[in-house]
Amino acid sequence: MKMEKSLSEYMKLSEKLEIEKHEKKIKLAFLSSFTITGLPEILKTKCNEKQISCQTYLGSYNQYPQEILNLDSSLYRFNPDLTFLIFDLRNIFGEHFFYSSDLKPSQKKEFIIEKINELKNLFEVFSNNSNSKLVVSNLNVPFYSSYGIAEQNSEFGFHEMISYFNSLLKELVKKSDNIFLLDFNNFVSRYGEENIFNYRNYFFGDIKISLNLLPFFGEYLMSFVIAFLGISKKCVVLDLDNTLWGGIIGEDGFDNIALGPQPPGNTFYEFQKFLKGLSKRGILLAINSRNNFEDAIKVIREHPFMILRENDFSCIVINWGNKVQNLQEIAKKLNIGIDSLVFFDDDPVNREFVKKELPEVTVPELPKDSSEFSNILLALNDFSSFEITKEDVKRKEMYLHQKKRLDLEQSSSNLEDFLKTLDIRVTIEKANNFTIPRISQLTLKTNQFNLTTKRYQKEDIEKFNQSENYLVCSAKVTDKFGDNGLTGVCIIEKQKDTWIIDTFLLSCRIMGREIEKIILNYIIKEAKQNNVKTIRAKFIPTEKNFPIENFLPSCGFKKINDYWEFEIGKLFSAPEFITLVET
Amino acid sequence: MSEKLYSLLSTVLNISVEQITDITGPENTSSWTSFNGYVLLSELENTFDVKFTIDEAMDVKNVSDIKRHLKNHGVKID
What we know:
The complex is a heterodimer.
Chain A: H1 7-15, E1 24-32, H2 39-49, E2 52-58, H3 64-69, H4 74-78, E3 82-86, H5 89-93, H6 96-99, H7 105-129, E4 133-137, H8 158-174, E5 179-182, H9 184-191, H10 193-196, H11 199-205, H12 214-229, E6 235-238, H13 249-252, H14 266-280, E7 284-290, H15 293-302, E8 315-319, H16 323-334, E9 341-344, H17 348-357, H18 373-379, H19 390-393, H20 395-411, H21 415-421, E10 424-430, H22 436-445, H23 458-466, E11 470-479, E12 482-494, E13 498-506, H24 515-529, E14 534-537, H25 551-554, E15 558-560, E16 563-567, E17 578-582
Parallel strand pairs in A: 1-2, 1-3, 3-4, 4-5, 6-7, 6-9, 7-8, 10-17, 13-14
Antiparallel strand pairs in A: 10-11, 11-12, 12-13, 14-16, 15-16
Chain B: H1 2-13, H2 34-48, H3 54-59, H4 63-72
């Protein structure tokens, strides 16, 4: 099990935190049917460890319906970003928890439907009165059933009732953009019912999650914080010797490393399978290894039990250089922030070196026992996102194309020649239901080419898109190497004579190809057609968007007070080597 | 063992070891809330590898009671 601090340590640490310390901020509310005191303090501390300032609100004990239905409640006044609603089986089932066998199957179904309808009503009231996303727990299916082993033969038994409740709740949540499911049943499977729930604590203080395991529950809730803020990690960087295979290739040789379906190599074999699973959902993989390149690449290319092959890695760095510089090089090559990396290395010295020099990199502690590696990887919540977009799934392929582009760039005599050979096509279209999730994801994640770094949830984008006063567009980019997907966004606030650029961003994947000028040209053209006289923009500097500080003046914008302005009618030339497709 | 106990009380109640006496309890220590009482029991059980019954848990009114119950579970306390 992952090492965790005790609850009292979390409570002590949380007292010392400064509320407004970090750039990233979040307000969390907790509502529950039982005692969860301590959970807000755990989340505050965990957020601080990830450089997030967190304010919390803990609802009154078992008062969640009242807090939601009273429109003047402290909950709404707190105005949370994320609200956790955690209820438990006894609370929902009442006396039926003990005596469900008194009911006929049809009555049991009716009871569950009635409970779901009550919750549906609460969710509607909440959604109508709060901008917060709601994260709702399902119910754990306990070992206990009043039917005993006959549960399995009963028509719609106790456990089936709970599963039915969970499936209806899931359906309800799936219909909403604003509500997400917290799989408490899954959490209980992981840590075990007897470890989580003990009768002494329950009778004594209505504690239904053991105080020892409350920090682990907090870690699970952090997945939602990471997804909400769009700060999930993008790339797992891996060492090779004793990390992806057992032994040292340079010493043990190709035939003697441990890797394969039988022990001792099966720990590495399965670890690689889990990594491959991550890459299939859009997490990039890279190698950072101190080795002779030829020795190591031979294993990757030819070992019969190597699961991860050369094409599974978006960047391979195998040399005798230092691992910190190598990580910096990997981030640069992939054009992602150092803070998007997770680094796996069996060597504690390397881990400490990276932690010290690059504190933004997540460096999980790896024990000597390689059978723990998969478990440690699976316990990480750093890859959490509310949904997996088409672009996520295609990410690995896109980076392979990027590699080919870089090779071509290096062989071209100058940048313009290189760009001309790419045959870039940019498709600009107004936002629609298919593109809105990705547009929101880009506003949440893009740091470098982002003029204002305004973060928007899916429903914010929907509101802009429904308003006559806004124009929301996205850009898809393809070239001869493949499809980069939806990688550009602009949001314009339309005033009578002036259009204001609220958001203008490009994914780091397509920076440096003058695509921004094509998008700007499109905005200018649209503005002209709408008899707009001026386009106004703002550059809000952050720690990360300095690469584009000169973008506006370089395109002819003039500084007027706090804004940059572009007079329509002024000449603006977009690069001719890019084909614009409007839909 | 006393040192371990006092250090634990100090962490959970967020007071210095010097402030802790046998009569330290919820009535004279504002940080000894009912919830911190639960935290205290849970961390005492982890630290000393004991398990308190609900009667013992409810009987704890001060540090002296904790020592008594720990001794009953075979923990040596000065």
